[in-house]
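Researcher: Structure for this, please.
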Amino acid sequence: MKKDVWLSITSTQQFEGCDVDKVDLVTTATLYQRRGKYYIVYEESELTGMEGSRTTVKLSGHEASVVRTGSCPSELLFAENERHVGLYHTPFGAMTISTHTSRLCSTVGMNGGRLVIDYTLEVDQSLVGENHLEMIVAELPGDNGQD
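Model: Predicted structure, token format:
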């Protein structure tokens, strides 16, 4: 069963020697469960600078992956106390991105929930900043799900 939901995303980034950069986004998304994993799918917009991309967040136990397809394809994997390397495409080219997750907590289920990820980010093996990502999934008023 798929259902339309509200998705609230707050992302903060602290780069060395810079002020905290914070982005807030509220959008509609699709939430579904398949083979014991939860998926949150939404379209990127002009606000994020990735218009024309679709983002899929896959939650599986103590792991989360964020996969973007379209104009800015990428895949980032988060698992608590682990480091993962991925390729991140931008309009200016591709770069190697590494994430080291210090905290991952998810209560997301078919009735909504919350995902919190704290991680550091490395670009081409150089530490560039600390990040905090929080997603809140909430049911739309009057939505009973759809097939």
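Researcher: Any notable elements?
Model: The longest strand covers residues 2-15. The mean pLDDT is 89.
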